[in-house]
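Inputs:
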Amino acid sequence: MAPQQLSETHHGSEDTAQDKSTALSRGWLWPAQIAWLLIALVAWGISIAGLPLTLDAIRDHYQTNFGIWQYGRNQSGEITLNPAYGEPAARAGILERDVLISVDGLPVAADDFSALDDIIPPGEVGTPVTLMVRTGDNPQRQVTLLRGGDEGAILARLGLSAGFVGAYAVGVELITTLLFTAMALLIFCRRSSDGMALLVSITLVQIFVGTLSPSLIPYLYDQMPQWQPFFDAWISLAAVLLFSTYYLFPTGRFQPRLTMFLAALLILWAIAAWFFPGLYFWRFLPEGSSIAIILCLTGIAAQLYRYLRVSDAVQRQQTKWIVYGTTFAMIGLMGRTVLPESVSIAQPYFDLLFAPFTRLLQLLLPLTLAFAIFRYRLWDIDLVVNRTLVYSGLTVAVVILYVLVVGALGSLLQAQGNLTISLFATGVVAVIFQPMRRRLQGGVNRLMYGERDDPVGVMSQLGQQLENTASPHAILPNLVRTVAQTLKLPYAAISLEGEIVAAHGQPVTETESWPLIYQAETIGQLVVAHRTAGEPFNPADRLLLDNIVHQAGAAARAVGLTAALRRSRRQIVSAREEERRRLRRDLHDGLGPQLASQTLGIDAVLKLMDRDPEAARSLLKEMKAQTGDAIKDIRRLVYDLRPPALDEMGLMGALRQGAARYQESDLSVTLHGPDTLPSLPAAVEVAAYRIIQEALTNVARHSGAKTCIVTVSVTGDSLDLEVIDDGRGLPPGCRSGVGMQSMRERAEELNGRCIISSQEGESTRVQAWLPLLQDAS
Amino acid sequence: METRPLSILLLLLLTMLPIGCNAEVIDPLPPDEYLESALSWLEAHAVTGQDVDWQAVRQEAAAIVPDPQTTADTYPAIKYALAQLDDGIGYLSEPPGSADTTGFGIMATFPEGIVVGIYPDSPAEKAGIQMGDLIESADGKPPQPETYHPWITTLSSSGNNADLLIRREGSDASLSVQLDTAEYNTSEGHPTGRKLPLSSGSVVYVDLVADWGSRDYPTRVQKILRDEDDGTTCGWIIDLRRNVSGDIWSYLAAIGPILGEGEVGGFVYPDGAIEDWSYRDGKVFWAGDERGESYIRGSIFVPNHPDLPVALLFGKLTHDAGELVAVAFQGRANVRTFGEPTAGVPHLNLHTPLSDGASLGVSGAVARDRAGKLYDEPISPDEKVIIDWRRLGRPDDPVIMAAQEWLAAQLVCAQ
């Protein structure tokens, strides 16, 4: 493991974690490190010293196990027996104080022994031993026992020897010790400058290697009474270390302050108990167990207080780890101590399966502790929780399935313990196993991460959402809702041009943003919050969000385009109405009254013509002037509708005429283009004329340019326009004015494009492409 | 994926599962061999076996069960043999599967019917039955004696409930109580004790109730002794009146610090062999072997003053291990006994498992005290005081009062 690398691959934010030493890191580290090594050595010593005892005890257990002891000797010096109730010897018919005459045909003349096993010739478990016994003065009788008793019989059927079980137990113990040691040494080497890490690692070794090792209790503690004061002190040290760790983890400060007092009390108790062994609370009853429970409660309360009041997000994650590890260690511990007393497990299953399993469960605590220390950002705990859920669920399901199959077949075939049935059931389980695992994994993943592991599903769901959305403004809200729900995120939002346009959930502080990109243009952001504080996205999340963003970019772009389309359509309609109103106003308010007054004038002239010709003449002159005005008005109207020059001189002529107007100013306009253009659609002519006119107006007004080149050309199906000046260019951040806007609109109305670009300080260039082919519409 | 090894391990474990689920059942001996082994055992070990004509017993037994099909069929024949032995102890019973027994949780004297024992958490306790209550009838009939302990009744009922009529002291009317049977722990005794003031000084009273070897019994007794013993203590009252049976080694471990060190008694077998009981360094030994019952949680009680006088109380309920405790105190300096003669003869209750799981018990040895005196009849108290069962353990209990009076007169207390 390379923790530093791991943490660096994540975000930059925990670089500080490497420097974040806890409060227990001040000057006394040197002696603490020495103490660490001393305690660790003793722990390993205890563990190793107990291994041969464990081996012997287990081997003896299977070697003997007849449930029979020597009672003593009778008056004639013969050995008498003491069978235990319910044990194999009693069931085989040996009675209390029967005389033992011979074993396997050999007369018993040995010295006193305690258990029968001591005088039985060694042999493999399950092999028979023949005893000759006698009750009182009655005739001798023969009793056959199987070596190892009932449990030996189980082992024999499994094809295992007693020595193997012993070696196996020692092996598991050795592996556990090695793993704990490795874990603790790793912490020691990596973080020996951090007092908290030292405390945690030595607690691991002291408790899990030195104290909870089955070597200490029952073997060493009970078999070496002269060492009991030392063992008692050792166990009290375990209590001091354990609860200090509870009170201090993870910051190294006592929080709440009360726990410092408790820790001091514990240390005082440990010292006092060394002199007054009556104080060791595991030695008195029944208050001893309640003291232990109260102590545990203080530890839990301290951690709870820390979690609720003190910890930041990262520390809470660490507490989560500890809770996870402690829970399993406790289950392992209780399984080891409580369960065998309340549930009867055949010794071989205890030794082969149960004991190693509980020991390995305990191993989770150091693992999680190490994780909590090394990865200050604990982004993998979810994986561990996830796998635990999956495999415990799987185990339960498999066992149920197995029991069901074996039970059903057993009752169907009236056979029990049949190897064929169990093999068949195993086969069934094996076939169903993988699909079941996949399904469970999927379920757990959905529970924890939403649909993260099904990107195709998420994408198609998203696609469907987009497809089924009736109104365009519902697209983005639907999109963020889908993202938030499928990925189980507390918050998701889309912002376009810095403005949040759609959001789901409550805004939280810890968020990440993904840019929405369409055609290489960033059009907005997808803002999403982490599932919980301090729990950043993992690569799978990121990959899926990247994919979603690609889709969302297109969708957001479509929404923007739709809005723009509606806007422009509205503009067209209103522009047409505006035009009509102006025409009507001009005709109705201008020409109409003029013509009406002309009619009145003509009537007056008719009346005056005979009576007062002079007045009629002057009236006619007046009317002639009025008619001239009316004609001017009509011309203006017509010019506004379509510049007459276009009809008179064609586009090039009209442009040339327009360019000539700038001769008077300082601007020299050069027009390039063919002398004659093919016949162009009227709308294209007008648009081209107006765009160039507007561009030239802008050049004259704003650019300060000396020269300006206008190029008109027909390429393929479009009329291409270009206006380049040598002026100062567009100022940065310049917002397009009404003129520029109208140029674009005129081009776009005809499905063309108009691009205004500028090199700052040099020139401005207006380009427009106007398609010549009108579509059918 | 990393799931593969896990999956394989799980499958491997599964294949191992079925092989052990069916523990092998060893068949018990055939019925005729079974009967013969039981009779042989009784013949070999019963103290009262010498006077029995075993030839005749075997013939009669074969006549009682001519063709036994199961071992249970032979029980009447074995019980016949026990009846011939007539040692007051012998029994044949299924071994208790667990410490929990189904019943009402009540113990009363017979024939008086006075309640002298109520088990914790038993139906009797929950129904509010009190010590000293008089049971007038159960299901309309007077209480019946126990088979092996005819001086007590536990109302063992064949049904699941019993209607009791109870008379409480100071009340003329009878109470009707209905009890349902339930499981409760009958093997665990709950000793009690208190300090009784004298005109000068005080004595510590301990009710050494019966217990069948529960692990913490000696610790509990010593906790009482330690709590009550102070500088004013000038004597002990040890009450065996409710000690109907149980584990002698537990009792000796409990009161060993008062009993004193050394050999405290022994068993004498029919063949003349002797096994002594002794208490040394806080441990109990039987024939030189340390007994597991010696276990004390914490340190062993040490009295403030050694060798204080002891008043020992016993009566017609005191039996079996209770009687053996009384024997153990014989020969200790400064002991006086009060009450009524004990129930039986202080014997070794020797028992053996039979191959079908039944338990066969018999008087296997006679008790002798540390001076070597053999006991072949009930132990009589030094000072006979009629026990008033309704006032058992109360301040006005005449036996306790007599004991207090004697202790007050002792030199230690009189000073």
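Chain A touches chain B through 55 residues (CB under 8 Å). Flag for discussion at group meeting.
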